[in-house]
Amino acid sequence: MTLSKPQSGEYLEHFEEYIREVPEGELISLLELQPEEAMLKLGTLSDEAGNYKYAEGKWSLKEVLGHITDTERVMSYRLLRIARGDKTPLPGFNEELFVSHANFERLSIQQLLKDFTTVRKATLSLIRQLDDEAWQRAGTASGGPVSSRALAYIIAGHAIHHFRIIRERYLIGHM
Predict the structure, then answer these.
(1) Tens-place pLDDT, residues 119-170
(2) CA 83, 99, 54: angle at the middle one, nearest 5?
(3) Is 147 in contact with 137 (CB distance < 8 Å)?
(4) Does residue 62 register a pLDDT over 50?
(5) CA-CA distance, 144 to 8, in Å (whole number)?
(6) Residue 151 in contact with residue 78, Cβ under 8 Å?
């Protein structure tokens, strides 16, 4: 399955950054590879590295990993609802609240990566069963328009964005 990138108007403007991150090509292949790449690059990190924060008030590496997974859970749920034709406006969510109540520091990097892989497998299961009509459906989330197609790209681009931040700001001096 090859999906073209969503057009402006299919998503709120603040998601543009994530959609732009996704390279042209096979979206499913990218979604399949992200957990494998994350495990290869981060799977051997220590808890000390996982608890590292690059600046005061920033999340730890473990919190970023947990955030990636939690956001995918929310976006995948939105994708399910919209792809199935549900027109009920879906609320936003407070990512800071999610992270502050998750206690990710008690989990190992390996546990967080396994969780990401498990959630991604569920996302891929949903994506693989969608037909052309489902991909064209749109709804409302966080007070604005969003299409099924945009949500799939947001999921991939959000992970790309945060894994780049991990590489650039967290791994220096830890690998």
Answers:
(1) 999 999 999 999 999 999 999 999 999 999 999 999 999 999 999 999 999 9
(2) 120
(3) yes
(4) yes
(5) 12
(6) yes
How many angstroms separate the CA atoms of 99 and 84, rounded? 29
Here the tokens at position 139 are 């709804």
Q: Which two three-digit tokens encode residue 24?
A: 């042209």
| Residue that is written with structure tokens 């299409």 in the block | 147
pLDDT digits (tens, 9 = 90+) for 74-120: 999 999 999 999 999 999 999 999 999 999 999 999 999 999 999 99
Distance of alpha carbon 60 from alpha carbon 49, whole angstroms: 9
- Domains (range + CATH), the chain: 13-170 (1.20.120.450)
CB proximity list for 7: less than 8 A, separation 6 or greater: none
For 30-57, b where at least 16 C-beta lie within 10 A, e where not — what string? bbeebbeebbeebeebeeebbebebeee
Residue 147 carries which side chain, given as an amino acid letter?
S
